[in-house]
Write a structure and sequence with these properties.
Oligomer: heterotrimer
Radius of gyration of chain C: 19 Å
Number of strands of chain C: 9
Number of helices of chain B: 20
Shape of chain C: globular
Chains: A mainly alpha (161), B mainly alpha (430), C alpha/beta (311)
Structural class of chain C: alpha/beta
Strand content of chain C: 15-25%
Number of helices of chain C: 12
Helix content of chain C: 40-55%
Bound molecules: sodium ion
Helix content of chain B: over 70%
Distance between the termini of chain C: 44 Å
Structural class of chain B: mainly alpha
Number of strands of chain B: 0
């Protein structure tokens, strides 16, 4: 892979991590703010609970995409490990096969995630009164990045761990 | 059972066994199921379920508990807890082994998952025990066995997930697993005491003056406030579990950054990033699990299971026994969170129909699935401890067997006597 | 022959909630007795949360679900007008408005905009009432109470009464009341008993501020795809199901109030003047919010007129 592509991918990777972390910062602050505002001035603004929920979902889906790059997703690695002890090449083939299955899942989720997002355009959120398609947009976005990372692993054997 | 349902279950099991990440295995098997039904209009629903499955306020306690734990961990509180555990448990014969269990009891108030215990404490105790002459296998066995106390004591991620999927209160669940969790600690310490007599384990040499013990206690108090904050916050009418998680995280931040100055601001970004990534791995299983559960709902599985249990007519104890066996077998091959997500609400509903209190069933299920972390073929806690000790799985299994046995004994008691789990939530007014 | 899949919230045999499950069970037996269609009731939220089941129904993946007023509000904002505090003085007035021209026009609008045909309007336990650990006799008693309510249309009127509002998840409601995270809540008496709130609330005031209902919806494409005989079987079954629902809901509320009393709850009835005082604070606050947040603000006055006419 060219160094230019490498730089772009690393930049995207860092950016996604930062956004996921910021979502967690936001959600923690909103939840703390909710407690403080309830005791401080007796009422909780309508947007807090909902915004915190959206921040969690964004965080989780972005983290799921990054998890593909890091090969960090929870799995049972008994068979791959055993296979690797017998034949590293066979393990490599199995891992590529698993990445291909994952990629197929991600592509489906992009397509129907976009469908879900557009279907939700006519719906309004209770708290902020925004179209539900905004929070839903994270579905196709994060699985787009997940697919990119899966393809990198398939093509270039790119894996962090 | 329809052919499409069979395809769903078989492809899921097959895919996780060859090593596909659990979340994607759930989705892939749902796709297999859709193609078997030939009803392509199901596809957008499965995507929506991934999002909606995570769309829950109570579930937010998961990232917040993880954040609080990561924060105190980065603040190097492990040493403080180990010193404190030394001070209170180290005088016994087999001191370091006792301290290992005792530290896990203390640490359980900070970590939400068993692996967090091994990652933090195992690194300290396994080398230290080996240095004192314990076999590596025994050191790993004590570490792995005591780690399962972590998810039984609040904060507990599995209780949050279970509570968010059924209508059982999370606070009540955490109160219900607290005493069984502590009892596991007690019986494991009892076992160590017996082994210490038989094998003549050494004591821990340390300064045991009241002053030194006072200092160790003082140092440990600040991190040990986290479970206190969570418990009193939830049970004292100050906040919901989610809010308790937020306050615990804020407390950990203030302690580590302002009070101890043990985390630099640059390292703080890393704590948030790591917590976000780890939470994401759990939450995505919840989301994809929602798609999987929907497929089971479309196949009328909950109805089938409920009717089957009623047809068996096993009554209270029989149902408890059969469900525990099912959970044990599932827990041996699948991780506890996944089992809870896929089968927790299903079995709970059926158990309720057999006259079992849903809270009691929840506590038993959580305890049961944590035992699965210690059993072959896929006991993740065994593997994690083995990785640190490098003792080989065979010897480790032999050393773990007695611990597994007493823990299973506790499981039987908790399942047979509802009072053990239901007394505390009752007193606290759930 | 067709299968009608119905996604329901509650487990089968949920005691005290026969007005929902029983309604669909009536529908099922009527449809299956009079046609070769089958009705498959999927209980206990196995198909997802109510909002999700509503979407599945819109997409035709399932044909019906027991999604209620608040869920429909996410896809048809005008429906919220009927949740306006003190719009209806009695349940019978509400039924007359729903079954009359106003309800029929609204049903047609829901069909056109969402693809869900509303076969009729059922009662979701009846009016909501405030409960707390003190006697609420007048609006002044609400001052400073921390109330668990959900959504702006419930929050804004409660805050206008001088109470504060907190969104607490339903699963945490009992504990939050027990421990005092919140002081009070508003629900129908059936829901009050379902989660044993009589154990954690000393007083229940029959404020009757908001009427809780549900559209009995069916996927319109599915419905119009049936031959006329089958369509008639379905509309007849729906009529019978709703009649069952309303009678059952009245019967159960009366029983539920008795049950709460037996469990030590002091039940307070308000006279017309006291209710009017609640209405005069809560209704204008709600109307203010509705005007900015529904698609057809003119319907607000229409609804008030229809309710007046039906009294
Ligand atoms: Na814990
Ligand atoms: Na330990």
């Amino acid at each position: 892979m060219t160094s230019m592509a490498r730089i772009i991918i690393d930049l995207v990777d860092k950016g996604l991590r930062a956004i996921a972390a910021l979502c967690l910062v936001a959600l923690a602050m909103l939840v703390v703010f909710q407690v403080i505002s309830r005791y401080g001035w007796g009422s909780v603004p309508l947007f807090t609970e909902e915004t915190a929920r959206y921040a969690m979902i964004w965080m989780a889906l972005l983290a799921a995409a990054i998890g593909v790059r890091d090969a960090a997703h929870i799995r049972i690695d008994f068979v791959p490990t055993m296979l690797g002890a017998v034949s590293p090449k066979a393990r490599r083939i199995l891992e590529v096969l698993l990445d291909v299955i994952s990629l197929m899942v991600f592509l489906t989720l992009i397509w129907f995630g976009a469908d879900t997002m557009m279907f939700a355009a006519g719906q309004t959120s209770e708290g902020m009164q925004i179209p539900l398609s905004y929070p839903y947009s994270i579905l196709p976005i994060s699985f787009f990045f997940a697919s990119v990372f899966a393809m990198l692993r398939i093509i270039a054997g790119d894996a962090r761990s | 059972m329809t052919l499409s349902l069979l395809a769903l279950l078989v492809s899921f099991l097959g895919l996780i066994l060859v090593g596909l990440p659990i979340a994607w295995a759930m989705m892939a098997s749902v796709l297999v199921w859709v193609s078997m039904t030939g009803n392509w209009s199901f596809l957008p629903i499965t995507s929506e379920r991934v999002y909606q499955g995570m769309d829950s306020f109570v579930l937010m306690a998961v990232p917040l508990f993880i954040l609080a734990g990561e924060m105190v961990n980065a603040g190097k509180i492990t040493d403080r807890l180990v010193n404190f555990a030394n001070a209170i448990f180290g005088w016994m014969r087999g001191g370091l082994a006792q301290v290992n269990v005792g530290a896990s009891i203390l640490f359980s108030g900070i970590t939400g998952v068993a692996l967090g215990d091994i990652a933090s404490l195992g690194r300290v105790f396994i080398p230290a025990m080996i240095r004192q002459g314990y076999t590596p296998a025994y050191a790993a066995a004590v570490t792995a066995s005591s780690s399962i106390i972590g998810p039984m004591v609040p904060p507990s991620l599995i209780a949050v997930i279970y509570g968010s999927m059924s209508d059982v209160s999370i606070g009540a669940l955490m109160a219900a697993t607290l005493i069984p969790g502590l009892l596991i600690g007690v019986v494991q310490m009892g076992l160590v005491a017996v082994q210490a007599r038989i094998y003549d384990f050494p004591r821990v040499e340390m300064d045991r003056s009241p002053r030194a013990i006072g200092r160790a206690t003082g140092h440990a108090l600040v991190p040990l406030m986290i479970p206190v904050i969570i418990l009193t916050g939830m049970l004292g009418g100050i906040m919901t579990p989610t809010e308790a998680g937020g306050i615990a995280a804020a407390y950990a931040l203030i302690v580590s950054v302002v009070l101890y100055r043990s985390i630099r601001l640059s390292a703080l970004a890393d704590v948030f990033s790591r917590s976000a990534l780890f939470s994401g791995q759990l939450l995505i299983i919840v989301g994809c699990g929602a798609a999987f559960s929907w497929a089971m709902g479309m196949e009328n599985v909950p109805q089938l299971v409920g009717a089957t249990v009623e047809n068996w007519g096993l009554g209270y104890l029989g149902t408890m026994l059969v469900f525990n066996l099912i959970l044990l077998v599932l827990g041996m091959v699948i991780d506890p969170t996944t089992v809870i997500i896929l089968f927790g609400p299903l079995l709970s509903l059926a158990a309720t129909r057999a006259g079992i209190d849903p809270l009691h069933f929840g506590a038993v299920a959580i305890l049961n699935l944590n035992v699965g972390l210690l059993t072959p073929p896929l006991g993740v806690c065994l593997f994690a401890a083995e990785k640190i000790a490098g003792c080989g799985l065979g010897p480790l299994l032999r050393s773990t067997a007695p611990f597994l046995l007493v823990t299973l004994g506790m499981l039987v008691l908790v399942a047979a006597f509802p009072g053990i789990s239901l007394w505390l939530p009752g007193v606290l007014g759930f | 022959s067709q299968e009608i899949k119905v996604g329901l919230s509650l487990p089968q045999n949920a005691t005290g909630f026969d007005f929902v499950n029983g309604m669909y069970e009536t529908f099922k037996s009527e449809v299956e007795a009079n046609s070769d269609m089958t009705v498959n009731l999927v209980y206990a939220g196995a198909l997802g949360a109510p909002n999700e089941r509503l979407n599945q129904m819109r997409r035709g993946v399932i044909q019906m679900s027991d999604a209620a007023d608040g869920n429909y509000a996410t896809i048809h904002r005008d429906i919220q007008i009927l949740n306006m505090p003190y719009l209806f003085p009695t349940e019978q007035t509400a039924w007359a408005v729903f079954d009359g021209p106003f309800g029929q026009a609204l049903a047609e609008d829901v069909r056109a905009k969402t693809g869900i045909r509303v076969l009729g309007w059922w009662e979701s336990g009846g009016f909501k009432h405030f409960s707390a650990n003190k006697a609420i006799q007048a609006t002044a008693d609400m001052q400073g109470l921390k109330m668990r309510v959900l959504g702006p249309l419930a929050t804004i009127p409660v805050e206008a009464l001088g109470a504060s509002a907190a969104p607490v998840a339903f699963g945490e409601l009992y504990t939050s009341l027990k421990t005092g995270v919140v002081d009070g809540q508003d629900n129908s008496v059936s829901v009050f008993n379902l989660v044993k709130l009589y154990e954690v609330q000393s007083h229940l005031t029959l404020t009757g501020h908001t009427y809780a209902f549900g559209p009995l919806g069916i996927n319109d494409r599915f419905f119009t795809g049936l031959d006329e005989a089958k369509q008639k079987v379905i509309t007849d079954a729906a009529t019978k199901a709703i009649a069952f629902n309303r009678a059952k809901s009245r019967e159960m509320e009366a029983g539920a109030i008795e049950f709460a009393k037996q469990n030590g709850v002091t039940v307070i009835e308000l006279d017309q003047d006291a209710k009017a005082a609640f209405r005069d604070v809560m209704q204008p606050a709600a109307i203010g919010w509705l005007k900015d947040n529904v698609d057809t603000p003119a319907l607000i006055d229409d609804a008030i007129r229809a309710a007046k006419a039906a009294e």
